[in-house]
Amino acid sequence: MKKTLLAVSLTAACAGVAHAETAVTLYGLIDLGVGYERVRGDGFHASRFSEMSGTSSGSRWGLRGVEDLGDGLSAVFTLENGFTANNGKMAQNSRLFGRQATLGLDSKSWGRLEFGRQTNMASKLFGQIDPFAISYNSANMGTTFSAMNTMRVDNLVLYQTPTINGFKFGLGYSFNADDTLNDGSGKFNTGGNNREITTGLSYSNGPLFLAASYDRLNPTDAAVGGKNSARPTQYALGGYYDFEVVKVAAAVSQTRDGWFVGQSLAISPSSDFQNFGNYHSANGFTATSTLLGATVPIGAVTSVFGSWQRADPNNSKLTGDDKTFNVYAAGITYNLSKRTNLYAYASYADNYAFRDGVTDTVVATGIRHRF
After folding, report:
1. Where do the H-state alpha helices sit in 16-64?
2. E strand intervals along 219-276
3. pLDDT by residue (tens digit) across 76-94?
C-alpha cells in the first residue's frame, strides 16, 4: 500500500486567496530471488547459480507528486530510482532516477503532457499484453519484439490523450534519446543527437484490449552514412481477450534497419552494425516477430502464465547470422497478501540473439514486496 507522506492544503494570509492542495507519495518495490542460467553454443558452455534482483519487477523506489491547479488540471511529477537489491547498487547505468524523471500537466479533459525520461509507448502498451508484463528477463516479449523491452528514452516530450470511448493515443519526441552516449551525439546542433519518435494507440472495452505502436530512431549525423544512415524502425500490433478462465494474448511486429535493445538482449554485431546505446542500426535488416500467450487464474491467489515468441530475420546484417530466434516460457505467481507474492518461471531460447545453435536456459524463483 502506497503511503502518502505529504498532503498539505495552504491558505494565504490574504482573505479569499486559496492555494491548491499538493500530495507527494512515496512508493516502491523490492524483488529478490535465486536462479540458474546456462548459455550454450558452438565451442562454449557457461552456467551459473546466483542471487537475482528484479526478476518479476525491477526493484525501485519513487516519489510521485500531484498539485491540484483547479478546473480539472493538475501539475504532476514522478521521480523513480531503480536499484539492484542484492547489492544495493543503482541500476540504469547508475542514474539517480534512471527509471523515470518527469514533470508535466494532467487534465481530465485534455490528457497528459510530460517532459523528461520515461518508457516509450510500445513498452507502456504491450506490457499490458505480454503475460510476463515485459519482465522475467529473456521470457518477456521485448526479447524478440525489440522496442517493447522496457526501453527508456531521455529528453522525451510525451503527450497522451484521455480515454475517449475506449480509445487512447500517445505521441512522443525525444531531442536526444540517450544522454550517456559518446558517439558524436550530444552536440549543440539538432542533427548531432539521436532523436526518437514513439507513438501508440490502444482500445479497451471490457475484456478486450488492442494496441498498435510505432518507434523510429533518427541517428546523429555523425553516424556512418550521415543523414542517410539506417533508421531503426518498428511497427507492432497486438491485443488480449480475457475469458475470465483464461486470458489469451497475441502480437506481431516488424523491425527494420536495426534493433531496439531495451534492457536484456546482448547482440554480437556484424560489420554492418552501428551501436547507439539502446539502438542498433543495420541498414537492410528486417525481422518479423510473433507472440502467443495465455494467463490462467487458479483460485483467488494463484496465476499460471506462458508464452511462445519468435523473431524471424531476413538477412545477417545485424549479427552476422540470420537464424530464427524462439523463446518458450512458463511462470507462476502466488499471492501471500495484497503486497507480497512468490513467483517462479522457466524459459528456453534457441538460436538466441539470431545466433545459430546458441541456447539460453533460465530457471528462477523469488519473492516480491510492494510498498
Report:
1. none
2. 233-242, 247-260, 274-276
3. 999 999 999 999 999 998 9
